[in-house]
């Protein structure tokens, strides 16, 4: 065992031990601790802000990281509000999905339990530290956090505050732990800590998530990549299509549920392309187009083959003309990331076929892809948006941070 | 891309294409095809039995594989019966788990869909070929089968028969495919075919499953390892404990839900150990014991540290005396495989604490661990028993071979 793995093993054992006690806390106890954590972030902001200043003083921090890395009193207050919201949500732990008596007379109950130990791997965003810690704690999970190295001091200060609240409430402080060694070797060892970590949830760039998927032997929930399409059917209300496409692209272009591609049925392309391209340009969007689009609006940027698979996360969009709904669906299933896809149509059959055949977590008729979100879905929280099919798909709220166990009551039954 | 990966990529693409069409079949169509497959196994047994004879003629087959590898008319009839039973089960695809309207007025429905392409890796058991193909087909999943090399001719013959039934019904024959190249290189490439395979389910020995867990980048459902315990509490009915332990050990010792370990509360150890050890020996079981057990029954085989983590799958059991229920739970959580655990007790509190604190898929009060089984649970089928927490835990029936997707109906909603 190498040194990185040895250090992590201790941390993993502590997390696992803590997880056994977390599952026994009542909802009332957990909520009281979440509220105390919220208050502590406000009361103890001085050391947190001092640690954050140390991170920001690092001359090697890329300029684009500065905003997301910066903590202020207002941002700490936002984090505290987030924790209070989590405290107010219903607790899924202990819920019984269903219960039945089998032929042998056993009463079998499928009961929601914590996953156990959750590993979170993320970039230099200190807000993720508090957010993930709160969601995992509410669901009785121990969490091991591995944040970006640029935020190490901030994360340490935040975790210290949260751990002190745990300890004051007689809860094992190892329920929330931070990996202090931000080397790649330690990250790689963390991803293989199968004896102690039940699931890894990476949050961040496509590159980060790919690295985790490739290296991990711990089960991973893949999140966040979103190459989302809007298909404008020949039976679309075109003004509705424009609202949906513009909202999907410009309302928050950096996020995973932003619309990245538009497919337009050939029957409406000549009429509609000038309108939608103008509407997007009015919002500062760079529009790229395939050859059919170029033929109608010659000054679009020519789209290359690479465009169809690219998630821009920026004010850029690519448009392609398709011959049929079937072509649109085939294109989407080839290039999408199984996140969110939309059709705009007034044709009932076209809408239902699209919903059935498109392979994605969320498939919309006549609505913006931007709705794929735990809060918009009414979950009251979100740990990420899953783009895989196992365990959880789409927005993940508290329920998606649980597993189940069968608890079975007998009176001496043996198998025949 | 190496040659093994190139060949597999074609196979994966074909499976993915087939999966898109399978999701569109009606339950009635799928059931008719399953019944036709059952009939074809009986009608076309001659080429299947000839292929099987070729496998059995291989002089390198270990003697212990011969029985599980041998096909007969009776065994083909059993496989056919299995397919007919799967046809008779309710189809989970298209079920709506729940549907609601969100604040923006969108109607959101969480609908059951196939997982997509399932990869099965298993040993030289031709019955798994038919069983897995039937369960995957019923749930609209394409399947890629990689069976043990000793059964290759048998598996080819079986898959040919099933594919011909698909083709006769105008269904893509690539819905069921067999990997013909049984090299380790191809198996390793298969486990990394993330673009085309949605989930891998290994079925077989602990060694096989560990190999898959270590090498795979495709998400894996871990199945089958069972180091199951029975804890005899101080408040146990001892005659009930004996029935449960003997049933758990001897009714079918080779399977994963067999009882492998017994923990006995010190307060009843002196009274109970001679009885239970005699009862086990009467059934031909080798009894191993810790030092406390040896002190009471001196002629037990001394248990070593390795015993506590070992799944015997044989007529061997190890007994340990514990000081308390807490010690029993700690021992189980340290050494178990999260499969099935049981307490025998008449103390309500002891039973409920055990169910809550033991970390396993199935936790029994006063019943045999042998009940952890898809048929005993009333699922009507079983693809395996999951010992992980993500996605599925415990016996996996048809529902556990599905994912979900959110289908969302709007009328022009955009995000504020």
TrEMBL record, chains A, B:
* Family (UniProt): Belongs to the gamma-glutamyl phosphate reductase family.
What is the main EC category here? oxidoreductase
Enzyme Commission code(s) on record: 1.2.1.41
- Leader sequence range is none
Which Pfam families does the UniProt record give? Aldedh
Query: What is the protein name for this chain?
Result: Gamma-glutamyl phosphate reductase
One Gene Ontology term of the molecular function aspect: NADP binding
Q: Kindly list the places in or outside the cell where this protein is found, as annotated in its UniProt entry.
A: Cytoplasm
UniProt keywords, alphabetically? Amino-acid biosynthesis, Cytoplasm, NADP, Oxidoreductase, Proline biosynthesis
List the catalytic activities from the record.
L-glutamate 5-semialdehyde + phosphate + NADP(+) = L-glutamyl 5-phosphate + NADPH + H(+)
NCBIfam families assigned:
PRK00197.1, proA
Q: Which gene encodes it?
A: proA
A GO CC annotation given for this chain: cytoplasm
Q: Which domain of life is it from?
A: Bacteria
């Amino acid at each position: 065992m190498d040194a990185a793995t040895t250090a992590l093993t201790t941390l993993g054992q502590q997390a696992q031990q803590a997880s056994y006690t977390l599952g026994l806390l009542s909802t009332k106890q957990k909520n009281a601790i979440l509220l105390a954590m919220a208050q502590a972030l406000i009361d103890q902001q001085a050391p947190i802000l001092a640690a954050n200043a140390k991170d920001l003083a690092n001359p090697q921090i890329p300029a684009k990281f500065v905003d997301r890395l910066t903590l202020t009193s207002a941002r700490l207050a936002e984090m505290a509000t987030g924790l209070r919201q989590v405290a107010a949500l219903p607790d899924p732990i202990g819920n019984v999905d269903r219960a039945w008596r089998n032929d042998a007379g056993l009463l079998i109950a499928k009961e929601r339990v914590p996953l156990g130990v959750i590993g979170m791997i993320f970039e230099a965003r200190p807000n993720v530290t508090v957010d993930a810690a709160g969601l995992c704690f509410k669901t009785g999970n121990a969490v091991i956090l591995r944040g970006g190295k640029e935020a190490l001091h901030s994360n340490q200060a935040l975790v210290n505050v949260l751990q002190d609240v745990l300890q004051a409430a007689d809860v094992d402080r190892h329920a929330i732990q931070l990996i202090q060694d931000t080397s790649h070797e330690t990250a790689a060892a963390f991803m293989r800590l199968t004896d102690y970590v039940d699931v890894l949830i990476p949050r961040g760039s496509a590159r980060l998530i790919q690295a985790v998927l490739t290296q991990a032997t711990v089960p991973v929930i893949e999140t966040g990549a979103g190459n989302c399409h809007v298909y404008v059917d020949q039976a679309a209300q075109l003004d509705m299509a424009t609202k949906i496409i513009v909202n999907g692209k410009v309302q928050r272009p950096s996020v995973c549920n932003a619309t990245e591609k538009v497919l337009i049925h050939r029957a409406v392309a000549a009429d509609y392309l000038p309108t939608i391209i103008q509407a997007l340009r009015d919002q500062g969007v760079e529009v790229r187009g395939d050859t059919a689009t170029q033929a109608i609006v010659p000054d679009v940027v020519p789209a290359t083959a690479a465009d169809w698979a690219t998630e821009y996360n920026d004010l850029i969009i690519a448009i392609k003309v398709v011959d049929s709904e079937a072509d649109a669906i085939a294109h989407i299933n080839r290039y999408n990331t199984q996140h969110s896809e939309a059709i705009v149509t007034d044709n009932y059959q076209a809408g239902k076929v699209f919903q059935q055949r498109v392979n994605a977590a969320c498939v919309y008729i006549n609505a913006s892809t931007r709705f794929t979100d735990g809060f918009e879905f009414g979950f009251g929280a979100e740990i990420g948006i899953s783009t895989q099919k196992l365990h959880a798909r789409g927005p993940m709220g508290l329920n998606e941070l649980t597993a189940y166990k069968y608890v079975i009551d007998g009176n001496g039954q043996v198998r025949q």
